[in-house]
């Protein structure tokens, strides 16, 4: 039940039809007796900069979750950003502090990496390919570098985005081998789709599935369906996979701490979540 006392967390992005976070957070809030709610708010890219400042003036708002396509631009719209967000070049969380200033942070990468590690796959010394150098891809790449990967290959349809991410990674992780320009998955231990490919019917696969070895771990960020065409094709080859929502479940405890709601576990969240696809 939403009342005048309910604390709001905006969920900002576009389109909102694929949003999964409210179906995880809100059942948990209800179970815990916390009077708070995650509220989807669709904002077009051209309206985002103006809308964000107005939304953040709502007096019953604690902050916001930020998703595609706004993560990168959000970094320049907050008053302060954490080092993690700066390295990633994007924000997916905004905290409105008591003085009204906005603090940005990024949890996508940590959530993705924790999910893969909990499945028994280590990044230490691994060769990893990440396709997509936007907000989510940049965050995942930064966390993979932090987790000890030996080589990181980056690809983006906008070559300059991949090059900019590579430069930031080389600055902070000088011993990491960083390559750009190819999305050929052959020879990699882990490949990650951090592009929107898979959100629309008829999208091409983000990788040439024939070039992926059965020993390769395949990760996905798209959440339109639990098992996207990429993941189904990878599983047909015998690959271990990670679905898009795993990243969400693993990062939500960090989000809750960021917003001051305590913490929980991915297992506790899964037990009450009401996901729909």
From TrEMBL:
CDD domains: NAD_bind_Shikimate_DH (cd01065). Keywords: Amino-acid biosynthesis, Aromatic amino acid biosynthesis, Oxidoreductase. Pathway: Metabolic intermediate biosynthesis; chorismate biosynthesis; chorismate from D-erythrose 4-phosphate and phosphoenolpyruvate: step 4/7. Residues 13-94 form the Shikimate dehydrogenase substrate binding N-terminal domain. InterPro entries: Aminoacid_DH-like_N_sf, NAD(P)-bd_dom_sf, Shikimate_DH-bd_N, Shikimate_DH_fam. It comes from the Bacteria. This is Shikimate 5-dehydrogenase. It comes from Pseudorhodoferax aquiterrae. The lineage of its organism: Bacteria, Pseudomonadati, Pseudomonadota, Betaproteobacteria, Burkholderiales.
């Amino acid at each position: 039940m939403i009342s005048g006392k309910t604390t709001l967390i905006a969920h900002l992005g576009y389109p909102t039809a694929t949003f999964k976070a409210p179906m995880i957070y809100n059942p948990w809030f209800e179970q815990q007796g916390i009077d708070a709610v995650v509220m989807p708010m669709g904002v077009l890219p051209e309206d985002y900069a103006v809308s964000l400042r107005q939304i953040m003036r709502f007096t019953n708002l604690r902050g916001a979750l930020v998703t595609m396509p706004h993560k990168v631009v959000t970094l320049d719209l907050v008053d302060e950003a954490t080092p993690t967000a700066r390295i990633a070049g994007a924000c997916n969380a905004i905290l409105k502090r008591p003085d009204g200033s906005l603090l940005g942070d990024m949890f996508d990468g940590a959530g993705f990496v924790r999910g893969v590690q909990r499945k028994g796959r280590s990044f230490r010394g691994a060769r990893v390919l990440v396709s997509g150098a936007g907000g989510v891809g940049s965050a995942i790449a930064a966390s993979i570098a932090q987790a000890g990967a030996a080589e990181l290959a980056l690809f983006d349809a906008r070559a300059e985005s991949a090059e900019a991410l590579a430069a930031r990674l080389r600055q902070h992780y000088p011993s990491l081998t960083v390559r750009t320009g190819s999305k050929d998955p052959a020879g990699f231990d882990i490949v990650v789709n951090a592009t929107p490919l898979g959100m629309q019917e008829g999208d091409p696969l983000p990788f040439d599935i024939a070039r992926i070895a059965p020993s390769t771990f395949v990760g996905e960020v798209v959440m339109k369906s639990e098992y996207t065409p990429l993941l189904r094709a990878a599983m047909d080859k015998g690959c271990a996979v990670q679905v898009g929502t795993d990243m969400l479940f693993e990062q939500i405890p960090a989000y809750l701490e960021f917003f001051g709601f305590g913490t929980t576990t991915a297992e506790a969240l899964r037990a009450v979540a009401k996901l729909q696809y």
